[in-house]
Amino acid sequence: MARDTVTGSRIRERRIVAGMRQAELAREVGISASYLNLIEHNRRRIGGKLLVDIAQILGVEPSLLSEGAEAALISTLREAAADATAVSPELDLIDEFAGRFPGWAALIAEGHSRLGMLERTAATLTDRLTHDPHLATSMHEVLTMVTAIRSTAGILVDTKEIEPEWRNRFHRNLNEDSQRLAESSQALVEYLDGAGDAGASLSSPMEEVETMLMEHKYRFPDLENADGDVAAFVAAQPMLQSSAARTMAETSLRRLRTDAQQMPRDAFAKVLDKVGLDPSAIAHAFRVSLPAVFRRIAILSDDLLETPAGLVMCDGAGTLMLRKPIEGFSVPRFSSACPKWPLFQALGRPLHPISQRVLVTGRDARQFDCYAIAEPIGAIEFNVDPLYHAYMLIVPADAPAQNANEVGSTCRVCPAQGCAGRREPSILVDGI
Amino acid sequence: MGKRVLLIEDEPNIIEAISFILSRDGWSVATHSNGHDAVGVVLANPPELLILDVMLPGKSGFEILRELRDAEATRDMPVLMLTARGQTKDREMAERAGASRFMTKPFSNADVIDVVRELVAT
């Protein structure tokens, strides 16, 4: 059975695992049981909001139910294979393995992801212990106080005849040093506690922000009016563990709020009906920037469009700072992305909007319409080189085109041969 | 008056404690507490033994020692280095800089006296 026709079967499987009756799930998502039955027997296609709703009720990621789920799993398995040193997994059997043993495959993928996170945490903590000036200073302070106390106490105990003036002096020194030691060790413990928390989060600030945004489905109605307290909202989000993540989240939310105020949902829907999915026309209609339109389309697409749209944003160094994932367009989590993405082309031509049909290399080889632009950060000043942020809106293409540019996710799992932008060999030596 | 020991250390209570125990052991103890002008202080009146902390304000003990080893008057002067860090690389750095001995904080008073006696005797 073709990959894209078994979403219904997966829903059925997950529903049974969750112990739900068909009628119950249908009622929860607001469709008839007979329609759900047709979906579950793969006689009706499913996507968009309904798929997201069903996934939420079943407590799984939508991608696990959709056609991209196996592709994502296989992609992670390939990464695991690429990182293997002592063994050589049979890459040519990877499809069969994931298809026949999805549970075991998922276990390997999860283990690989966790191992990667733990390695990053270990590297961060090692780096901190080795190079952290604050830690070195704290340790030095503690050891210095211990030395002073030990030496002074030794004098008081070992010196049989000691003048009262010296005894009093050493007692005072002991008191001072013990107080300083208490403060130093307390500060050190607090610092190490903080370091432990940072390590325990096992994720980067960007991932924490991403998790928060996804958990709220990128919608923050309470924050969209001027009274919404963004700082309080951010402080109340348990997944935002690091201060870096909280700062990033606050910046993102303020930006999304401005977008929402400039392009309210209902007004946006009307313009969308009138001009279609044309970012330029929407920007003209609302007199806003293209990046703002990209963000608004990406966020409202789950609600207003048949298929959700994705969004990525990077800084001038090409570091991805915001990701709204989309099925079929894999955005690497930790490695560098494909340099052929219009996102990076936009960085080379700031303020020059780019629209491009792309074909994502790989098993599904799907096409997307990408819209990208780089805009300067902050105010433009004379004789000051501006810095840029680039945005790329990713919209699934309705119908395939002949002139699509091939792009990948990241070099390691990209089968394209003879690519001038390749940074490292692909593990897919023989293609897919 | 005993042999002269110069202690360069920035922690006042450690200065006081070491000064006390060495004085009681018969040494004449001079002290100095920063790295900026430490080399000049040593060269102006070289002691029989220098006790030198590694982490000093202004200039590290390693740098001070390297400069002293370049000077004729202090090339062979016994130097005991004190540090709060006992890592292998610190020991290696101390040896490369020309330290005669290396002690890691916290140390006992008896150890300090033993090492000082040993270094000056040799």
UniProtKB/TrEMBL annotation, chain A:
Protein keywords: DNA-binding, Transcription, Transcription regulation
Ranges for domain HTH cro/C1-type = 11-65
SMART domains in alphabetical order: HTH_XRE
Q: Name one GO molecular function term.
A: DNA-binding transcription factor activity
The record, for InterPro entries, names: Cro/C1-type_HTH, Lambda_DNA-bd_dom_sf, ScfR_C, TransReg_Diox_bact_type
One Pfam entry name: HTH_3
Record's CDD domains? HTH_XRE (cd00093)
Q: Which PROSITE patterns match?
A: HTH_CROC1
- A GO cellular component annotation in the UniProt record: cytosol
Name of this protein: Helix-turn-helix domain-containing protein
Q: What is the lineage of its organism?
A: Bacteria, Pseudomonadati, Pseudomonadota, Alphaproteobacteria, Rhodobacterales
Automatic annotation (TrEMBL), chain B:
Mind telling me which CDD domains this protein's record contains? REC_OmpR (cd17574)
**Alphabetical keyword list:** DNA-binding, Phosphoprotein, Transcription, Transcription regulation, Two-component regulatory system
Domain Response regulatory stretches: 4-120
**Which GO terms of the molecular function aspect are on file?**
DNA binding
Q: Which residues carry this modification: 4-aspartylphosphate?
A: D53
Q: Which InterPro entries match?
A: Bact_response_regulator, CheY-like_superfamily, Sig_transdc_resp-reg_receiver
GO BP, one annotated term: phosphorelay signal transduction system
Q: Which domain of life is it from?
A: Bacteria
The protein here is known as Response regulator
- To which species is this protein native? Shimia litoralis
